[in-house]
Amino acid sequence: MEKTLAEVAEIVDGVLTGDPTTLVTGIAPIQDAKPGDITLLADRKYLQHLEKTQASCIIVPPGIETAQCATIQTANPWAAFSKLLLLFFPPRTPSLGVHESAFIGEDVQMGTEVSIGYLSYVGDGCRVADRATILPFVYIGEGSRIGREVTIHPHVTICEDTVIGDRVIIHSGSVIGSDGFGYTTLDTSHQKIPQVGRVIIEDDVEIGANVAVDRGTIGATVIRRGSKIDNLVHIAHNVVIGENCLLVAQVGIAGSTEIGKNCVLAGQAGVIEHVRIGEGTMVGAQAGVTKSIPPHTKVSGYPARPHAQSKKAYAALSMLPELLSRVSRLERDLKKAVTKNG
Fold first, then answer.
1. Residue of 8, 220, 245, 281 with fewest CB within 10 Å of its CB?
2. Which of 49, 171, 237, 307 is catalytic?
3. What's the pLDDT tens digit per position in 137-166?
4. Is 237 a catalytic residue?
5. Tens digit of each residue's pLDDT (9 = 90 or more) over 213-242
6. CATH second-level architecture of 3-88?
């Protein structure tokens, strides 16, 4: 594919500085780009590459200029770059229809332009809406509902009675609707509590690879519209994730916890059961949330506390060896003084 810089600037609604007739033939990282490539510089930490790149054009935020090559300035460089990625690398379109090796149960309702791949299983009573794509080796349990324009990647398991909204993407290896970790202890044994609820995933959610979302014990585990879940996240039974949340890799959320809308949980953050994280909260990487958090708070550390407090605590921690040495010296000096004056 070829596009002139004038065409590219129009597509991304940006301001071009440079020759509008220059051709763009590819996309590459800034440090690897060659003549003909367009690249991105969205973060000033990569400014060291600006004067060395061989790219023909760089998409940049306002205020960044270079004589090295043309630039297209835009308020949101990543949004602009995403448009170009879709243009130069359009999504692959699977074959429509049901592969002859797929299993389709009884009373399955299927919309138009549905694709179901090799050796996939769709259980009795499922509903699969228009333009849903179910790639090979997917299991969808009885009574589940799959919304419009959903994409389910290979080796995903969707257990019985799961509800998935429109335009949801689920990546390989994820399990939606497995039993929650529910037991009661009788004498010295652990007796399983039946997990009879379900999972509801609302519209425009994306779930990464190898994510586990447990069904509710009773009621539902819910992921509300627009939330994005990274790889290797665990969401326990009866958790509610609010709208437009971001959960980064290896986050773990224990049962019956509620996350408000527009929250961010950074990598490896952990949250105990039965607490509420207020909307707009940011939880730092590896933080341990042990109690409810009010809205619009930034917390970090273990136990999680306001970020400013955590920074002071970590700063004090680094001074402990010196403080211990000073205390030891003072104790020795005091002991000598007591002995001398005794």
1. 220
2. 237
3. 999 999 999 999 999 999 999 999 999 999
4. yes
5. 999 999 999 999 999 999 999 999 999 999
6. 3-Layer(aba) Sandwich (3.40)
| The two three-digit tokens of residue 238, written as one number | 């009866």
How do the residues of the chain divide into helix, strand and coil, expressed in percent and rounded to 5? 20, 30, 55
Q: What are phi and psi of 103, to 5 degrees?
A: -105, 125
Domain ranges for the chain: 3-88, 316-341
326, burial (CB in 10 Å: exposed 0-12, middle 13-18, buried 19+): exposed
User: Among 79, 127, 83, 81, which Cα is nearest to 104's?
Assistant: 127
